[in-house]
Amino acid sequence: MFAEIDPPQRLLMGPGPVNAYPRVLRAMSADLLGQFDPEMTGYMNETMALYRGVFQTQNRWTFVIDGTARAGIEAALVSLTEPGAKVLIVRSGRFGLLLTEICERLGADYVTVDADWGQVVPFDRIAQAARAHRPQVIAAIHGDTSTTMAQPLDSLGELCREIGALSYVDATATLGGMSVPVDAWGADIVTAGLQKCLGGPSGSAPITISDRAAEFIFARRHTEKGIRASDATDGNRARIGSNYFDLAMIMDYWSEKRLNHHTEATSMLYAARECARIALQEGLEARFARHELAGRAVVAGARAIGLAVYGDDAHRMTNVTGIFIPDAIDGETIRRRMREDFEIEIGTAFGPLAGKIWRIGAMGYNARKHKVLITLGALEGCLRAEGFAARSGVDAALEMYEASHA
Amino acid sequence: MFAEIDPPQRLLMGPGPVNAYPRVLRAMSADLLGQFDPEMTGYMNETMALYRGVFQTQNRWTFVIDGTARAGIEAALVSLTEPGAKVLIVRSGRFGLLLTEICERLGADYVTVDADWGQVVPFDRIAQAARAHRPQVIAAIHGDTSTTMAQPLDSLGELCREIGALSYVDATATLGGMSVPVDAWGADIVTAGLQKCLGGPSGSAPITISDRAAEFIFARRHTEKGIRASDATDGNRARIGSNYFDLAMIMDYWSEKRLNHHTEATSMLYAARECARIALQEGLEARFARHELAGRAVVAGARAIGLAVYGDDAHRMTNVTGIFIPDAIDGETIRRRMREDFEIEIGTAFGPLAGKIWRIGAMGYNARKHKVLITLGALEGCLRAEGFAARSGVDAALEMYEASHA
């Protein structure tokens, strides 16, 4: 028999998961409720209201999907995309590739507009592609942690209205850390996860859906047998290709209808609710500023150490930074030293960047001065121990914090 | 701003979710780990080993899906069922209907072998249908909580070998409460959830996969771009129609390859691991006996009160009991009284049974003498308060416990 859970106290400064807020962990220790008990549906309604705040939206349909961030992505795409529908995918990293991958499996007829990893796609290229291809759906990643770049999406809604498309945005890595102004963008579906800037565990995916998108999805409604009312009528559009990710049924579950679908993941709901409470109690502007300062301090510190920072400065995510692994240094040796000598995790990289960059995140509960400084100090020490002539990064980061009076 | 999570202390005696073991809630309060940290992958491997015990199997591929029990069902079916494949579905309740529903969405060519709600399908009828239709997959529900019946599945594997099929069994409502002898059945994929007899929160779905089924699924492997090795080769069978539920990629994530797919839901993993530890520490036989006695006590108590018990005595699930709502009694009024006066939840019913039966569960942490007795006493009281001449059910249940020396 294995022993009880007792993980080491490790500082998680990678691209997520990061350490959870203690308040979130405590919220999960509350006992369960029946799924239709009034207190449970009350918590569900409160969670909806809280995430409207976090997503900066008035969307009625704002709730959580029971799965990881990737579950939110698939729920959005399978519900928005009828087989054969044309989807325009904005790609410049691994998670853009994931959108393609999911669309292939859904049988969508997708086209892409691409930028090299480390860049973003200029909005006029997106607009040009949209006008040329007239897609039914435009899908994009807000912050792609694989490249540490944030895609500008300001005019997304306007473009979609012009060509009659709906839009999907994956904000997994940015929600609660960078501004995700859903209504100002005019985005139709935006999804996220808890394990990045919201400072909770993976396993619950906040989602918000515009009335426009909800109307489309309800036209695909096909309530399952066993729970459907005898007088239920189905929508006239193609049935959604997944039961678990059928947003029409999930919205019916989160509505006053309370039509049973899955059994809501109660502990994860408690976690999601507490993440949102923490975010709104801090205040979104204060929160974005905290992440932005932490990100600038990581960049300044890395450069002061003598390391090159990856990607385009103008579009850098504030909460995760790519740092080139110097020649003659083995990236995994440094990561192992960071973990074993300092109990700090920094991130590796995927695909074309594997072995070329580390990724240092400062997200949620960890986007704080002392954690950034400790991480930079540890990185310097590990680099010197491996023979790289690292200068001090701590001083530069500390100066940045002191100059900001944070 | 809403207040912190502080649910009432309610006894959940419905068909699930039930109250979680305090140890499970405490396990979830441990902080997170990086998803590839050695301690995290260690916990993943331990969870695999523990669920081999719970599932009574040697299957290497035994792990958890990040979602509710329904996510496990869909992952199994989408991975086992190629478009156009013939699936034989064994149906006698709501969850049998759910299998049909999912197969429709997958584009499977399914046939069914049915029994009326409250009955099970005799195995010779399953065998007859299998020989006539030669399906690629046979899918069944072990315990369908909608009807409270447990489907016998002893010869499932033998039948599948005879006709060259793979099998899927949903054991959501029985795993950890009734015997689910995966290897003795010869079942190929079996899935479950935590929120019934395992006594944890919904949101993690244990799954076990035979080598035979794994081989089939790996023949459908198509590793996503962005993480695939340059020399990766894909399987020669049809690509799985979901990314999130692609068991080939999920197995690669849980294997020594550790190929990143989703971000493992760490807190739910901690919960799943603790549920299994508790089950194996108690011992499966002791646990099945505890559920069986609790179920018999509920049945005896209900009958002593003067209520009729729903369904076929020979195939009753031990952990959930259907009880007819007497004429002239409104079922929802009793449920509301149970909740408001006694802080006890009992279950309503679905479809053809809605308004006709209550469902009383005694599962996991709640399959205990005092909880059964308290529930029966409360039910008597509520029935008398509403004018039904209820006799004592407590006495009969207590006698049963005393006779068993439990």
Automatic annotation (TrEMBL), chains A, B:
This is Aminotransferase class-V family protein. It comes from Asticcacaulis biprosthecium C19. Pfam families: Aminotran_5. One of its GO terms (molecular function) is L-serine-pyruvate transaminase activity. Keywords: Aminotransferase, Pyridoxal phosphate, Transferase. Its cofactor is pyridoxal 5'-phosphate. Belongs to the class-V pyridoxal-phosphate-dependent aminotransferase family. Transmembrane segments: none annotated. Residues 37-217 form the Aminotransferase class V domain. Substrate binds at R359. One of its GO terms (biological process) is glycine biosynthetic process, by transamination of glyoxylate. The modification N6-(pyridoxal phosphate)lysine is found at K196.
